[in-house]
């Protein structure tokens, strides 16, 4: 009797310690960053919609730029991070999947930001130019950038092992960095040689006074913090997803081998000499 | 839509999209986090 | 490396000669695309102006189909894996398949230009006809190199995985946008659409050549890791 109870008690505590007490991807670090990001965003709204003055030429519509410009800058940052992480994965000796996950998470965030940029930009264009869209160099390239990275995300979901995913997306991540400037250059040539009648100055970079520049600065800081926060959460999440996938595969393999071993012992009276290779670590 | 509508709309769109993405990220993080034991979580 | 590439190109073309899939299916597809354009853009003067662009659009769509085909013959029986296991240099595979793809594309483009002459009333302007023809041929060659390289690269990337048929157009079309832009403009200069002259076309050929070089070099480098699983 006394021998059974401690064993059972041990089993219970063993089960309990296997259950995670940390039930999210948050830590003190992310909470801090998150709070500062929210405060900065609040500040941005206050300055963007309130304290900063209306532009001389663009009137109130310049306020849109305080969110529009940060989102596209962050998108560029995100895609650069994707390219660098892809390179780190491909060219490092260890080929840690952490780089691959960072590339993927950054691309996800980048795509979200580009989508927002295009939509908000269309609204700005409606106010400033009178049209939602223009086929000028910058807009066209941004639209193609968006589609290119949607393709990148689709490639990540093609299937296969994690290493295959990592290699394919890393190659694509680096190709995109070459592709985008080429596309931009071509579109610029396309648009500069046939000067269409433009509705207004397509530059969008108004002469900003001090307070306006400051509001923009706040916006960039706020969105950068947001980017870091999102990256931390997404990469941790993806690491766990990868782990669970591998676990699932290992378990399925173990079950299969157990079945095979059973049928082998059932078929022959001699014990099987199956050598168990440990997992799929490539 | 007048000017204010577009301006407020663009702020709303930006923040709503980001908030939605953030919420989904945290939610999927929680879901996976419950299945993975603590010692496998490299950030802790 | 070059000999192996030529062997692979020859193999692909031999497969095509025996199966005649591109000749019997893709060329008619390109033709019907040209006809569909005419249905959609009903006015003759519109067709005149956009004809060069339409030819290249039809080329792009057909490219997608041919690339699917060129990698289907590899993955269907594990031929690509067999080549790798046999120790074939992936760069040779890339160059070989790109050459075969390029050749088929050139045939396709020639047919499409012919169709444009017949259906859309395109013609080479009589003054400086030689210059126009030179521009036209150079455009076709440089554009085709770029298209073949990009097609082979992305075809190899997506080959054999679920969802690859729908993924390929999504990946390829943004990547070949420079070719579409450059080739259309160059051909417009060659045939004199909207008053363009031959001299304007050569800068676009420059763009196409730059793209082709980047695509071939980048593709050859990237192809190895992609099929090395």
Short overview:
With 44 residues, chain B is mainly alpha-helical.
Helical segment count of chain B:
1
Overall residue-averaged pLDDT value of chain A: 83
Estimated share of beta-strand residues of chain B: under 5%
List low-confidence stretches of chain B: none
DSSP summary, beta strand count of chain A: 0
Largest binding interface between chains: A-B, 46 and 32 residues
Which architecture of the domain at 66-195 in chain A per CATH?
Answer: Up-down Bundle
Structural class of chain B: mainly alpha
SSE pattern of chain B = H
Oligomer kind: heterotrimer
- Structural category of chain A is mainly alpha
What radius of gyration of chain B results from the CA coordinates?
18 Å
Explain this structure.
- The complex is a heterotrimer of chains A (282), B (44) and C (229).
- Chain A contains seven helices and no strands.
- Chain A is mainly α.
- In chain A, helix 3 packs across helix 6 and helix 4 (97-128) runs parallel beside helix 6.
- Mean pLDDT of chain A is 83; it is low at 1-17, 194-202 and 277-282.
- Chain B is mostly helical and 44 residues long.
- Chain B has one helix at residues 3-33.
- Chain C has nine helices and no strands.
- Chain C has one domain (2-227).
- Chain C starts with a helix and ends with a helix.
- In chain C, helix 2 runs antiparallel to helix 3 (44-75) and helix 6 packs parallel to helix 9.
- Classes of the chains: A mainly alpha (282), B mainly alpha (44), C mainly alpha (229).
Q: Could you give the topology of this structure?
A:
The complex is a heterotrimer of chains A (282), B (44) and C (229).
Chain A: H1 4-18, H2 28-51, H3 62-91, H4 97-128, H5 137-156, H6 162-192, H7 210-267
Helix pairs in contact in A: 2-7, 3-4, 3-6, 3-7, 4-5, 4-6, 4-7, 5-6
Chain B: H1 3-33
Chain C: H1 2-19, H2 21-40, H3 44-75, H4 79-85, H5 90-119, H6 129-158, H7 164-175, H8 177-191, H9 198-227
């Amino acid at each position: 009797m006394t021998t059974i109870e401690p064993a059972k008690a041990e089993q219970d505590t063993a089960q309990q310690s296997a259950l995670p007490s940390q039930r999210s991807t948050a830590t003190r670090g992310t909470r801090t960053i998150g709070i500062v990001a929210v405060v900065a965003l609040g500040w941005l709204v206050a300055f963007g919609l309130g304290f900063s003055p209306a532009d001389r030429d663009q009137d109130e519509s310049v306020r849109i730029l305080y969110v529009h410009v940060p989102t596209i800058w962050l998108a560029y940052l995100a895609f650069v991070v994707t390219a660098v992480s892809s390179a780190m994965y491909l060219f490092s000796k260890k080929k840690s999947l952490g780089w691959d996950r960072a590339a993927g998470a950054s691309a996800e965030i980048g795509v979200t930001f580009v989508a927002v940029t295009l939509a908000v930009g269309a609204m700005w264009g409606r106010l400033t130019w009178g049209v939602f869209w223009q086929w000028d160099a910058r807009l066209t390239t941004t639209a193609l950038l968006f589609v290119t990275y949607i393709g990148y995300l689709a490639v990540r979901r093609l299937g296969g092992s994690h290493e295959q995913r990592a290699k394919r997306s890393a190659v694509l991540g680096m190709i995109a960095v070459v592709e985008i400037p080429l596309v931009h250059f071509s579109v610029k040539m396309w648009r500069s040689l046939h000067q269409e009648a433009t509705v207004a100055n397509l530059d969008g970079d108004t002469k900003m006074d001090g307070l306006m520049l400051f509001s923009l600065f706040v916006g960039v800081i706020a969105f950068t913090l947001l980017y870091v926060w999102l990256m931390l959460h997404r990469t941790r999440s993806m690491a766990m997803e990868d782990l669970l996938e591998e676990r699932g595969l290992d378990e399925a393999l173990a079950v299969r081998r157990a079945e095979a071993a059973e049928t082998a012992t059932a078929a022959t009276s001699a014990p099987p000499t199956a050598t168990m290779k440990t997992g799929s670590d490539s | 839509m007048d000017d204010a509508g577009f301006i407020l709309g663009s702020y709303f769109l930006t923040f709503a999209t980001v908030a939605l993405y953030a919420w989904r990220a945290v939610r999927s993080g929680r879901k996976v986090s419950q299945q993975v034991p603590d010692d496998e979580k490299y950030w802790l | 490396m070059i000999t192996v590439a030529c062997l692979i190109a020859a193999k692909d073309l031999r497969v095509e000669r025996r199966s005649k899939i591109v000749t019997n299916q893709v060329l008619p597809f390109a033709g019907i695309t040209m006809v569909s354009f005419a249905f959609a853009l009903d006015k003759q003067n519109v067709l005149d102006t956009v004809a060069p662009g339409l030819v290249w659009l039809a080329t792009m769509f057909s490219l997608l189909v041919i690339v699917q085909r060129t990698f289907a013959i590899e993955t269907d029986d594990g031929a690509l894996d067999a080549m790798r296991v046999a120790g074939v240099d992936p760069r040779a595979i890339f160059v070989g398949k790109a050459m075969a793809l390029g050749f088929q594309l050139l045939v396709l483009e020639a047919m499409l230009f012919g169709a444009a002459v017949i259906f859309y009333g395109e013609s080479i302007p009589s003054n400086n006809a030689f210059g126009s023809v030179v521009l036209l041929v150079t455009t076709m060659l440089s554009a085709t190199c770029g298209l073949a390289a990009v097609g082979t690269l992305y075809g190899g990337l997506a080959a054999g995985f679920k969802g690859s048929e729908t993924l390929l157009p999504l990946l390829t079309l943004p990547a070949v946008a420079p070719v579409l832009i450059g080739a259309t403009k160059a051909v417009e200069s060659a045939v004199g659409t909207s008053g363009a002259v031959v001299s304007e076309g050569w800068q676009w050929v420059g763009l196409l050549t730059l793209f082709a070089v980047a695509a071939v070099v980048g593709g050859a480098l990237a192809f190895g890791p992609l099929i090395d699983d």
